[in-house]
Amino acid sequence: MMASFFRIVKFSLQDIFRNMSLSFMTVLILILMLLSINTLIVVRVITDESIQTVKEQIDVSIYFHPESTEEEIGEVREYVGSFPEVENEVYLTKEEVLENFKDTYSDNKEILASLDELGENPLGPTLVVKTREPKDYEKIINALSVPEYENIIEAKTFGDTQVAIDRIHSITTQVERFTYFLTALFAIIAFVIIFNTIRVAIYTQRAEIGIKRLVGATNWFISGPYMLESLIFSIISVAVTYGIAHFSIGFLDPYMGVVFGETELLSTYFSSHLLLILGIEFVSVFLLTIVSSGLAMRRYLRT
Question: Can you give the pTM of this predicted structure?
Fold first, then answer.
């Protein structure tokens, strides 16, 4: 049994080196296909992080009348806090609102001078509410637009980020479609190359295969070297792709840190999902090579 296995390994390596150019081209195409898959993963990670960053900027600001009492404001705060869509809320007193206003317009002397002329704080308290999803702000705004709160709430504003999120989704969809196309294209090219590589190998060795049949060799023994080639192609392509992806992620991470504030965004994701990603990529490539090899051998293995 072991002797047969070592012969299969020997024949497989001989076929690979005998058709070195085709073997190299096969591995190259498989690597390009896997890199396309990794590109899809990177695009998805960046998209999710972009949307999360935009979502974190969502807030609903509720401005109270300066004359509103603490009891009235407390009632509104309790009502807003009862909504499950509310993630958190920050209450700013009149004094804090005034300080923030002065900081915002610290370079505008006219506004600050006008504020000093008033002699008192014209601003009321503010409640800043963060919601879980972009669509939730509308529910909060509508819930507070009732007659009971007209004399308590002066104004309500929100940061509408839905347009930005929709734009991110649109761009991501276009990029993903293009990447899916490239992945499918490389998969088809790899299939054709492997199919023809195996057929050429079998054709050039048809006399040897005939002799093997005359001495009683089984289909498994005859097809074994070509199946092993598929395994070797898969292992090499996944290993090289991992090396390229690892280097590329290390190069991209600093730039992701500038945009998102997280210096190891891609590294963290790939590290936590490494076994899953490598497993899916290996199984995908191995199935592709096995199927193409099997179809190429089918004609010559018929008894």
Answer: 0.68
